[in-house]
Write a structure and sequence with these properties.
single chain; three-stranded antiparallel β-sheet; two-stranded antiparallel ribbon
Length: 131
């Protein structure tokens, strides 16, 4: 059963501007080391980070409303690249705890880019008994 859908749009050009304006340690407050390392190895570092940030926001928009406190720390949402090149969430303990409290078993994510705009989508699912 779908528990909710979250979507976010991020401007990769703005991400590029921020990368030039701030040292990387500032981004370590938002992104995991794995996310930053993945972006460092890419030709389009700003686009990769824009997608990762969009996923964080989309997951927040779908999970936070299901929590009693209506919030959580964005740093617990980490995105990796699957073998086929698609984004996937890395479910660490802190995120798993929030998902459990929100009664969410799985969050599917996807990103798409057109020019400087990156769209991220998150769908939260709860398996019903017998599935």
């Amino acid at each position: 059963m779908v528990r909710g859908v979250g979507i976010d749009v991020v401007d990769a050009a703005e991400q590029e501007r921020l990368l030039g304006a701030f040292p990387e340690r500032v981004f370590a407050r938002i992104f995991t080391e794995c996310e930053l390392a993945d972006a460092r190895g890419r030709r389009d570092r700003a686009g990769v980070l824009a997608g990762r940030f969009g996923v964080k926001e989309a997951v927040f928009k779908v999970v936070a409303p299901l929590l009693p406190e209506k919030s959580f720390d964005l740093r617990i949402v980490a995105t990796a690249t699957a073998a086929d090149g698609t984004p996937r969430l890395e479910i660490a303990a802190a995120l798993r705890e929030s998902l459990d409290r929100a009664e969410v078993d799985e969050v599917l994510v996807s990103t798409s880019r057109q020019g400087d705009l990156v769209v991220a989508l998150a769908v939260a699912e709860r398996r019903t008994a017998g599935q």
